[in-house]
């Protein structure tokens, strides 16, 4: 029985290690968080940008508003050590505020450029935007471009349907659903962790049963050749 349990432990350990090694290097995704109201209201969108240990420092982060989304005002929160540049695009046809004021331009992109070392490997930083008014959509995808000190750029633009785990998923938020958890990326890592945890739980139970059985056998060793002897009555006739 011990040899069987050892084999099971080895199989789970090797499977868990292989699964973890098989996760792509971009597992530390750029994620988006949302806090605010529904369409037409104001919301805060936070982009969490990690710098993985095997990459150079991150020196530029650019988020683009999709062409079919019109957001009149975007106010970025200042980030120490970064310059901010907001670009706009013309609207055709123009849109109007609630008070009838004509609006000919909406935000097309926001770019943060490091004035210092940027995001160092193994660290992350948050980039917060106040958007108003929020578009009349259920979910908002924000293509994001992460540029490193060596000039390389990772484009976080890949669609991520439910159950998928692309290498560079586009950061996405659900409008009107305030949350403290990211709404894009990471499903592959979560599944690996869950199944690995379940495997170790099974191993722990099996080893526990084996230990109890062994302790019981040690406490009551069997005597070879011993047979049960019927009790003799001590009553006299």
From TrEMBL:
The keyword Iron-sulfur belongs to this UniProt entry's keyword annotation: no
Stretches the record annotates as Disordered: 155-186, 218-237
Membrane spanning residue stretches: 192-212
Pfam families the UniProt entry points to: DUF1775
UniProt keyword annotations, A-Z: Membrane, Signal, Transmembrane, Transmembrane helix
Gene3D superfamilies linked: Uncharacterised protein YcnI-like PF07987, DUF1775
InterPro entries, per the entry: YcnI-copper_dom (IPR012533), YcnI-like_sf (IPR038507)
Biased composition (Low complexity): 174-184
Coiled-coil residue windows: none
Domain YncI copper-binding: 29-175
The name this protein goes by in its record: YncI copper-binding domain-containing protein
């Amino acid at each position: 029985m011990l040899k069987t349990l050892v084999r099971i432990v080895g199989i789970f350990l090797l499977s868990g290690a292989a699964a973890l090694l098989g996760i792509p290097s971009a597992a530390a995704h750029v994620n988006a968080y949302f806090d605010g109201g529904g369409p037409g209201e104001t919301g805060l969108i936070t982009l969490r940008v990690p710098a993985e240990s095997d990459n150079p420092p991150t020196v530029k982060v650019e988020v683009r508003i999709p062409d079919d989304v019109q957001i009149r005002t975007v106010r970025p929160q200042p980030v120490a050590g970064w310059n901010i540049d907001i670009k706009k695009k013309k609207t055709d046809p123009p849109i109007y505020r609630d008070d009838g004021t004509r609006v000919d331009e909406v935000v097309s992109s926001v770019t943060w450029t490091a004035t210092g070392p940027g995001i160092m490997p193994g660290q992350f930083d948050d980039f917060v935007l106040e958007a108003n008014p929020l578009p009349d959509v259920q979910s908002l995808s924000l293509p994001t471009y992460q540029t490193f000190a060596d000039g390389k750029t990772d484009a976080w633009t890949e669609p991520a349907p439910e159950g998928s785990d692309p290498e560079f998923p586009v950061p996405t938020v659900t409008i009107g659903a305030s949350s403290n958890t990211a709404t894009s990326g990471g499903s592959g890592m979560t599944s690996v962790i869950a199944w690995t945890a379940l495997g170790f739980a099974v191993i722990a139970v099996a080893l526990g049963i084996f230990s109890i059985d062994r302790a019981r056998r040690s406490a009551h060793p069997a005597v070879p050749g011993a047979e049960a002897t019927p009790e003799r009555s001590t009553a006299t006739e």
